[in-house]
Specification:
Elements lengths: L3 H10 L2 E2 L4 E2 L6 H30 L4 H24 L12 H25 L5 H32 L3 H28 L5 H23 L12 H25 L6 H27 L1
Antiparallel strand pairs: 1-2
Helix pairs in contact: 2-3, 2-4, 2-5, 2-6, 2-9, 3-4, 4-5, 5-6, 6-7, 6-9, 7-8, 8-9
Length: 291
């Protein structure tokens, strides 16, 4: 039975099919549902790193008020989007998940991420207790890994039967760029306060390299339909915008990887540049989702 308040909301939004007992978005095009679902899963990967990045920056007083708000918003969005991916969401244009293995993956992600989202909110509120910080540091990568594994299941299901596998792969790769834009600044921040030491510096070098390689792959497109073939004109134009944003950030991070000092100015600059890079990467994902 539909919940009355939800029924009213759907009627107001024009999303209720009279007499059917079901919202109109239950008839959403399968191909668009697949594209939206893969895109939203990619966003979840990004949010797992964004909340950790912003929580860390707020801890070290780099634009702390802004970053605390971003950490809280990212944690809240992550929790809400897990529900949307499982149960469907009219606003996001996704149907209820029906594949048992994907639902199980989303449940595993939820179990892992509960400590991450809670700790990110607590840090955003100014709670820097050791246990809280430990939870944020220890849970962000396992949450990312589980969400990535779940996304691969989605790609396998939805990228073979419902949309072109090359397009699905392009959405996944472009979406990963947004996640990497946040992950590299998180690693920079962790490194600045001594979390992880040489391992984090090595991870940062790897993240920079992965982003750069993926950008070149997207520019090239793929043979035999891989990555949807050569980028369309609008996609290529947006790739140029990503590259333009990436160039100064790459140079700055490579200097740190080589042993350069991490000053407050570098952290602030990296944080601001990562926001621009994320916006450009999100715009690219949207083009692959729509074209």
């Amino acid at each position: 039975m539909a919940r009355p308040y939800l029924t009213v909301a759907l009627i107001v939004a024009g999303l209720w099919v009279e007499g059917s007992g079901q919202p109109a978005w239950a008839e959403v095009d399968a191909a668009q549902n697949a594209r939206n679902r893969i895109s939203l899963a990619a966003r979840q990967r990004m949010l797992s790193q964004r909340m950790a990045k912003s929580a860390c920056l707020s801890m070290v007083s780099v634009d702390s008020e802004v970053e605390a708000r971003r950490a809280h918003e990212a944690a809240t969005s992550f929790d809400a989007m897990l529900v949307s991916l499982a149960d469907g969401d009219a606003e996001q244009g996704v149907l209820k998940e029906t594949y048992p293995d994907v639902r199980a993956g989303l449940a595993r992600t939820a179990a892992l991420s509960s400590g991450l989202t809670a700790s990110a909110r607590q840090i955003a509120a100014g709670d820097l207790h050791t246990v809280v910080v430990w939870l944020m540091v220890s849970r962000n990568l396992p949450t990312l890994s589980e969400m990535h594994a779940t996304m691969e299941l989605m790609e396998a299901h939805y990228g073979t039967a419902q949309i072109d596998p090359g397009i699905a792969a392009a959405i996944v790769l472009a979406g990963r760029q947004g996640m990497l834009s946040q992950k590299m600044v998180k690693e920079l921040c962790f490194l600045s306060i001594g979390i992880g030491g040489a391992d984090v510096r090595e991870a940062l070098a790897d993240t920079v390299g992965v982003f750069d390689t993926a950008l070149h792959r997207l520019f090239r497109g793929g043979k035999d339909g891989a990555l949807g073939g050569k980028p369309k004109p609008r996609q290529r134009g947006q790739l140029r915008a990503v590259k333009k944003s990436w160039k100064p950030m790459k140079q700055m991070l490579e200097e740190v990887v080589a042993g350069g000092e991490i000053t407050d100015e570098i952290l602030l600059d990296a944080a601001r540049q990562s926001e621009v890079l994320l916006q450009e990467a999100d715009a690219l994902v949207l083009l692959y989702t729509q074209d």
